[in-house]
Write a structure and sequence with these properties.
The chain is mainly alpha-helical. The chain has one domain. The chain has 11 helices and no strands. The model has no long low-confidence stretch (mean pLDDT 84).
Length: 273
Amino acid sequence: MPLPATARRLSPKDLMSASSLELRKNWFVLSSLVSRDFKLKYRRSMLGVAWSILNPLLMMAVMTAVFQNIFRWNIPMFALYLILGQTLFALMANSTSGGLWAIISNAGLIKKIRIEKALFPIQKVFSELINFALSLVGVVAVMIWFKVTPGPPLLLLPVLLVYMIIFCTGLCLALSALAVFFRDMIHLWGVFILMWTYLTPIFYPIEGVPAWLRSIERFNPMFQYIRYFRNIVMYDTVPDLRANAICLAIALISFVIGLLIFRASSRRFILYV
């Protein structure tokens, strides 16, 4: 949130104090929104938070039964291969689907008080990050089943999550702004996510697709992030500098574009929500 014009006459110390106060205020609002979202998600649910662990495991069991037995793809430790792709893709899909409603569903709050609007789509990313962290319990269970011992490359998981947070935040900023003016985005994004799911090697090997499609996969952000995830968890491999550069570049491009779209349209939100 930009500082008022009077801030120009303040000393550097006063400016730092004002910026620190504004940062603490935004952090409090963000943490409150994340807490509210988390509580609402599991309200009146008998299993509650356990669903964040059970859901990826149940989906993995069903998809393993279908794709390994019917299509008979020869992927070692297929269940682990599947759940790694599934949980990371869900982090993006769920946060962006929630991000579409971030501004619209908080219209009453936006109209009543002065608040940094970007916090609403950012909150969706952090809410799903908590669910992702819980789903890792299921990933660990599958690793134990296959006797996969975590190696030093697993220490790069926080790096991958930073890439994902930046990437998903950019998408959420853009989608939340576009949905205010074009409500059809809410329906179109669901179709796009479905298409994106099948174009990403979540439940099939990349070697199983035609050569021309394999070359296109290089431009699929989720393919790059899922491959990174599988390398550090499943294959005990450290992604090279090129892989990290690609993942970071994708994240930054998404964030910059999303922020530009959001900033360019945020002043008109109140007229449309």
